[in-house]
Design goal:
- By secondary structure, the chain is α/β, with parallel strands linked by helices.
- About 40% of the residues lie in helices and about 20% in strands.
- The chain has 21 helices and 20 strands.
- The strands form four sheets. A seven-stranded mixed β-sheet has the order 1-3-2-4-5-6-7, with helices on both faces. It has a six-stranded mixed β-sheet with strand order 13-14-12-15-16-17, with helices on both faces.
- Helix 3 crosses helix 8.
């Protein structure tokens, strides 16, 4: 006997048997339903006081039966035709306890998503009270149109020529251009959790919506829950999972995105219950990185992070499958393929890590050359979309991509610039940080982020116009701590001040030392910023003019290795060398300054 789907917990066997008997009914070709099947459904629905649904194919065979609760029934996927300009070949007929047969928004959303021939609802109130139904009557560029009929009587419903109706509907749908647009669109429902001491969930979901749109999906809605402890099986409460199931049907969502990282088990459990793709914030960020990585190294780093993220999410039975060929229950083609997949991923991870290590050595050589030339380095850090690339372009005419999007920059860019005193310095743009940044990304991008660790000075760029800028600051310093760069000298740069009109806010931001307010877009205060950079870089070196005796002229070669040598003049008293020395070297050479002991 075929299976009954849905909420069967607590049902007596006699009722389950009655539901299974619905598979025995057949409907004549071209007819919507028979009186006998409709009455059998009504009798069971009244006994249960729940919704029940049947799927009937065009040959009149009942192919699926499902039972829900008093409000709705979760519909199983159809196995009908999948072409987007054809209907599924399945009609869905279900009951509405309470007598009101009008289609709900969830009914209409399910009709669109599963492309039923018709979606009908039988209002149950002391038997069959009325029937309403709906069908897809056409489509616009990105959505199906639906027409509803009713309430009508059972007799009127049975007399409808369903074969003629479906033929006419499929003619209307035969427009592949508009349908192809619908096939490409992803509609996302966002899910967040508010915990004590955590980020404001509304702001976090707003940022998740930006990430989702950056990834190319449309956000159709969001839900959130307040919890002190996460559910081990579903992350959120089981009741909230059921609510999400209804909301996603109503809104037509085809992907659920969680604002927090899910365990592999939680992700699998949610997908099984909700019946659609479920991803978390780390997977979304990884997808954006995969879309935006341009350089060879950037692509390798993203691939490495994705592989490490996906490895524990391969389907299977966990540790049981790792004992390949280990006895009863551990053999078979499924397990072998899974182990092969895992080995391939681990092998690819090793290959990428080796290649990234080689690129890291290559980059270290470049860094050594820069250090040998004694050109001071400054790295731009900050939350994503804070304006780092715009500032780099203004200070160096780098011409890098600067968009009002999250993670517009993934590959580090280094350019030369001139300080007010005429000295050169190097300015490096880096990938933006974000709250809940996947740890796989931090590990994969550690080589690139070494530019931050090795820099003489950090410019922390902050979007001053963002309402959550203080939390952004905390997120950036969290990543700096993970990199071991939290003790680096920092200039705090409040950017986008042109978007602020409250002087009190500006004053509060600038209370701390080594802080400045600028507008990279308009160029406001960039000259003052360069002065601050110069002053801070001077603190990392000491300028001096040394007088080296002729009998110690070999020291000059060492100075070229240790310091920046600006000029050498041969005088009667010795060799005058204008240099810029690191503080630790200055103590060694200050005895050669005229007048010093």
């Amino acid at each position: 006997m075929p299976e009954v789907h849905g909420e069967k917990d607590g049902l007596k066997k006699v009722l389950i048997d009655s539901l299974e008997q619905l598979y025995q009914y057949t409907v004549p070709f071209g007819q919507t339903i028979t009186t006998e099947l409709a009455q059998a459904m009504a009798a069971i629905a009244e006994q249960l006081n729940r919704e029940i649904a049947v799927y009937i194919n065009r040959r009149g065979i009942v192919v699926q039966v499902a039972v829900g609760d008093t409000k709705t029934v979760t519909l199983p996927a159809t196995d009908g035709r999948r072409s987007l300009n054809r209907l599924s070949g399945i009609r869905c007929i279900h009951t509405h306890p309470g007598g009101d047969s009008r289609l709900s928004s969830i009914d209409v959303a399910s009709l669109k998503k599963l492309r039923f021939d018709i979606m009908a609802a039988i209002g149950i109130k002391n038997g069959i009270h009325e029937i309403s139904f709906g069908f897809i009557s056409g489509h616009t560029a990105d959505e199906y149109d639906v027409r509803t009929v009713g309430p009508i009587s059972l007799k009127e419903f049975i007399e409808i020529d369903l074969g003629y109706l479906t033929n006419q509907l499929e003619r209307l749908l035969d427009s592949k251009e508009a349908v192809s647009t619908m096939a490409q669109s992803e509609k996302a429902l966002l899910v967040g959790v508010e915990r004590q001491g955590d980020w404001d969930v509304s702001h976090s979901l707003s940022e998740l919506a930006q990430l989702t749109e950056t990834a190319g999906a449309e956000v159709v809605g969001s839900v959130w829950q307040k919890r002190s402890r996460m559910d081990a099986a579903y992350f959120i409460g089981r009741g909230k999972v059921q609510e999400i199931s209804l909301v996603r049907q109503e809104l037509g969502a085809n992907i659920i995105i969680f604002d927090d990282e899910l365990s592999p088990a939680q992700q699998r459990n949610l997908e099984q219950v909700l019946g659609i793709k479920v991803i978390d914030r780390p997977a979304l960020i990884l997808d954006i990185f995969a879309q935006r990585a341009q350089s060879h190294e950037g692509k390798l780093q993203v691939e490495l992070a994705q592989l490490k993220y996906n490895l524990p999410r391969l389907g299977g039975q966990g540790l049981v499958l790792s004992r390949l060929g280990g006895g009863i229950g551990t053999r078979g083609p499924g397990e072998t393929k899974l182990e092969v997949d895992r080995r391939r991923i681990r092998s690819r991870i090793n290959d990428i890590e080796q290649e990234i290590e080689n690129l890291k050595k290559h980059r270290a050589l470049h860094r050594e050359r820069r250090q040998a030339a004694r050109v001071p380095t400054t790295a731009l850090i900050g939350y994503t979309n804070a304006g780092k690339s715009t500032l780099l372009n203004k200070l160096t005419a780098a011409g890098v991509l600067a968009e009002d999007k999250l993670f517009a920059t993934l590959d580090s860019t280094t350019r030369r610039s001139i300080l007010p005193g005429g000295k050169e310095f190097l300015l490096t743009d880096t990938v933006g940080f974000i709250q809940k940044l996947p740890h796989q990304l931090i590990a994969a991008f550690r080589g690139t982020l070494e530019e931050v660790v090795q820099a003489d000075l950090l410019l922390h760029i902050i979007d001053a116009s963002h309402p959550q800028y203080e939390q952004h600051i905390q997120a950036v310093y969290q990543v700096l701590r993970e990199l071991g760069a939290e003790t680096k000298p920092v200039i705090t740069v409040f950017n986008k001040m042109d978007k602020l009109d409250n002087p009190h806010i500006t004053g509060r931001m600038l209370r701390e030392p080594n802080t400045i307010a600028v507008s990279a877009e308009n160029g406001t205060n960039l000259d003052k910023l360069l002065v601050m950079i110069e002053d801070n870089l001077k603190a990392t070196t000491v300028d001096a003019t040394l007088l080296i005796p002729y009998d110690q002229s070999g020291l000059i070669a060492k100075l070229y290795d240790l310091a920046t040598v600006y000029s050498v003049a041969y005088e009667e008293a010795g060799i005058a060398v204008a240099v810029s020395l690191p503080p630790e070297q200055f103590e060694r050479y200050k005895k050669y300054i005229p007048g010093e002991e």
